[in-house]
From TrEMBL:
Family: Belongs to the group II decarboxylase family. Sphingosine-1-phosphate lyase subfamily.
Gene3D superfamilies named among the record's database cross-references: Aspartate Aminotransferase, domain 1, Type I PLP-dependent aspartate aminotransferase-like (Major domain)
Protein name, UniProt field: Glutamate/tyrosine decarboxylase-like PLP-dependent enzyme
GO molecular function term, any single one: aromatic-L-amino-acid decarboxylase activity
GO biological process: carboxylic acid metabolic process
Lineage, top ranks: Bacteria, Bacillati, Actinomycetota, Actinomycetes, Pseudonocardiales
InterPro entries, per database record: GrpII_AminoAcid_Decarb, PyrdxlP-dep_de-COase, PyrdxlP-dep_Trfase, PyrdxlP-dep_Trfase_major, PyrdxlP-dep_Trfase_small
Residues with the N6-(pyridoxal phosphate)lysine modification: 231
SUPFAM superfamilies reported for this sequence: PLP-dependent transferases
Amino acid sequence: MTDVSADGVLAELRALRAGDLPTHGGRTLAYVYDSALPGLDELAASAHALAASVNGLDPTAFPSLLRLENDVVRTAARLLGGDDRTVGTVTSGGTESCLLAVVAARDARPDVERPSMVLPETAHAAFHKAGHYFGVRVVAVPVDPVTFQADAAAMAAAIDSSTVLVVASAPSYAHGVVDPIADIAAAAAAHGVRFHVDACIGGWVLPHGPDVPPFDFSVPGVTSISVDLHKYAYCPKGTSVLLHASADLRRSQYFASAAWPGYTMLNSTTQSTRSGGPLAAAWAVLRHIGDDGYRSLALRALESTRVLREGIAEIDGLRVLGAPSSTLLAVAASRDDFDVFTVADEMKARNWYVQPQFAYRSSPANLHLTVTAANHGQESELLADLRASVKAAVEAGPVAVAPEVLEFIGGLEPDSLTPEEFGGLLAAAGMTGDTGLPERMATVNTLLAAARPALRERLLVEFLGALYS
Ligand SMILES: *Cc1c(COP(=O)(O)O)cnc(C)c1O
C-alpha cells in the first residue's frame, strides 16, 4: 500500500508549480532561460532520468559520466578559445565555479599568509561568498561611473603581494557590460597572478556577438573562465563549467582526504556524491542544439536585446545603463517623478517579471532584464507594456515612506537587530499577514533601498529564516 498514488503526487506537484513565475514563454526576464525550441525539455528530462541515480563521485565506477564530462568540457573549451592544454570541471552552477576558481587560486599560493583578490565592484556576489567561505579578502575596485566597466588601471594599481587572484566579468550580471579583459589580463600577468574571467552568464552568447573584443583564452594572461550551462546553453538547472588554461592550474582545485577509515575521498568540486542527472541532461542538450543551433539562438537573443534597447531609449523617463554588449539590460529612471520599483509592479500586473536592482555605488536603482531567444518577436508587446507601466508609475508618483520609518531604518544596527525591530519593519512594509509577499513590492523595495547594504543583508537573512521551517 502506498500513501498517495503516483498520479496524485504529480497532480499535487503540478498544482504547486502553477503558483510559480512561468519558466517558459519569455515573460520572466530573470532566473530562467527559454530557448523556445520544441522538444528540448523532453529530451533533457529523459537524459536526466537515465543518469539521475548514477554517482559522479567515482568516475572509474561510472565511466559514462567521465565521458560525458570530458565531452562537455571540450565543447566549452572549444567555444572559449581553449586549446589542447585547456582542462575543466562540470560544477553545479556559476557560484560553485566561482568558488572553485577562488579556492584553487588560494591553495596554489601557500606562501601568501593573508590572501586577497582584486575585482571590480560590479563582479558577481559569488566572489564575496567565496571570500567569506575561504578567508580571501575582497579588494573591490570602483568601476567607470558611466560605462560601468572595470577600470583596468585602478585594478592594476590594487594588485599587491597578497593578491592571489584577479577577477573580471564578460559580461557583468548587473549591467551586461564586458570589462576590458585584455588590459586586466596584462596587469595580472605582469604580477604573475591568476586571472579569472567570469563568463557565467555571457559565455555561450558573446562568441556570437558583434564587436565584442576578445575575452576568452585567446587573451594572454587569462588563466580560468567560468561559463554556466544552465543559462544561455539552455540546459536544465544544475550545470556550469570551470575551465583552466592548463592542468597545473587546476590541481589545487581538487581535494583528497585519506584521513578516515572509509574510501579515500577524491573530489573535483564542493560536492562529493554528484548526480549524473544534470550532467547527462546538459550533454544531451549541447549535442542536440549543436554549434549552428547555438549560433542562431544567440543571434535571436542579441537581436531582441538590440530592439528592446532601442525601444527603451524612446520611452520618456527610461534609460539603459552603460553600453551593454550582450543580452542583459539595466533600465533606470531618467526622471525622479516615479520609481522603477513601481514600474516593476506594473509590469508584474501585465504578466512580465523584471528584476529590481538596488542602487549601489555609482549604479542607480534599476530594472534588470535577462533577454533570451524566447523574447524574439515579443519586443513590441514588451515595449508597449513597459511604456504603459511607466505612465502608471508616473501617475502613482514616487513611493512615499513616512520620515519616521526612514529614521527608524537609519537607526537599526545590523549586528544587534532584535526580533521586535524586524517585526516592526515587516509591519511597515505591509507584510503582516500569512499570505507571504504582498502583490505589490514597491514599498518593500523602497524600505530595503533605504537600508544600507549591511543592514539589507541582515534583514533579508532574517526574512529567509522566517520563510523556511
Ligand atoms: C549567474 C551568475 C553567477 C552565479 O551563477 P549561479 O548559477 O546563479 O550560481 C556568477 N557570475 C555571473 C556573471 C552570473 O551571471
